[in-house]
Amino acid sequence: MLCLIITLGQNYEAFLKDTIDWGGVAATYIGIPLFLVIWFGYKLVKGTHFVHYSDMQFPERFKQ
What is the span of the domain harbouring residue 38? Predict the structure, then answer.
């Protein structure tokens, strides 16, 4: 979440002008959709899924 906040805070000045600098916006924020496409593509190809915390199994030495 911190990385997302930092990324969204970059080049916010492009939105504050009278006209939006679309070239600057695209150059700054292209990493977000690219990351999402790669991440969801990997999940789709490998068939991975999220596991709820209650369904996780931990060795006894990690339990408190």
Answer: 2-62
- CA dist., res. 8 & res. 33, Å (int): 12
Give the number of domains in the chain: 1
Kindly write down the DSSP assignment for every residue of 12-49, as one continuous string. THHHHSSS--HHHHHHHHTHHHHHHHHHHHHHHHHT--
- CA-based radius of gyration for the chain: 19
Can you give the pTM of this predicted structure? 0.59
Give residue for tokens 């990324």.
7
What is the rounded average pLDDT of the residues 11-39? 87
Measure the CA–CA gap between 39 and 27, rounded to whole angstroms: 20
26-56 pLDDT, tens digit per residue, is: 888 888 899 999 999 999 999 998 899 989 8
